[in-house]
Specification:
single chain; 360 residues; alpha+beta; 7-stranded antiparallel sheet; 27% helix
Amino acid sequence: MTFSNTSEIHISGRIDNFLFGAMKDPYFQEFQNANQVFKDSSKTKQDFLESFFSLFLENNPFENKTNLEIFNENIDVNKLQKLCPHFYKIYQTVLPESLESKEIVNKDGEAYLKTENIRSTEYDHYSFLEEILDSPSHLSQNTNSQIDNQFRVFSNDLFIEIYSDGNKIEEGQLGEVLALKEAELDDDFNFKFSEKQKKAHDSFNQKKLSYWDVDPSSVTKQNSIRSDGFWPLDYFKFVLGDSPELFDKKNNFFAVANNHFKFDRLKEVKVIFSNMSKCIFTLDEKIDFEKLSFLRCGLDENCRSASINYEDDMNIFNFLAYNGELIKPNETISGDKGIQISLTENNDTKQPAFYELFIS
């Protein structure tokens, strides 16, 4: 493996990826009555969301029945058709997994042999989520955004390898290799930048890839910066839009924001993909650690941990930048440790949890 005149940062292990989305109409309207389609009256809308999503996931190896069979046992299909016709239309694409035959089915213009491995003629778990949810990931596909909208948590126990100019120069557990320590401050309590650090930091903020300017909070033993406060604009606009009022720094942001929420928490859905994978960040030069920045979203630990269930001592960073540019990783998934889907509704506030993830 050689990387002459380039560098690569490999991070591998269980990397949790978060997708936040808002349920589209008319799915949201149908979802209000979704608990009524269960034969068991104690079931909730959350139960419906999990049950329906299971139709696009691997069957539980500890169950004797397929996910579809379990779904059909618990759901009154006639009520599903009546109360949730759009969900029912998706349900109709799901093939009986218990049947094996040589029947040919068409999907995306291609012919497939119908087997128990084909769950739907139209959807997998990703395309199902795209069908029912709006999310920043979808927004970025329609722009020239530099943001990779997969919200990843890079934690202490992941394995990191750093290659520079054809040589492996670092390897080990992420937390131990980075060995973060508090940033050194000057007499005015400002971060003491080196010349290279300052240039990379200022370049990133000048590109306005984040609503907030990122703020150095600690340094690695290689003299790279870890900064907080990264709020990617695609995420920001998904929650709040792009009104000039929001970007006028003369306004009190928190007073203005309350008038611009594009959805409330009742519509919000969070999906966690717990993948065993490797993310490779590629740099087009021999690495200079002082140009390397580890970016963490948000400014407040309570908001971060409530939204992603990771305390700050484990959530090391979420995005990586080099010399002022965001670096999108190439991720290879070797297996998954499960997928969780849930509502983030909260009776105390209508503010999206996704918004609270970023604010201080």
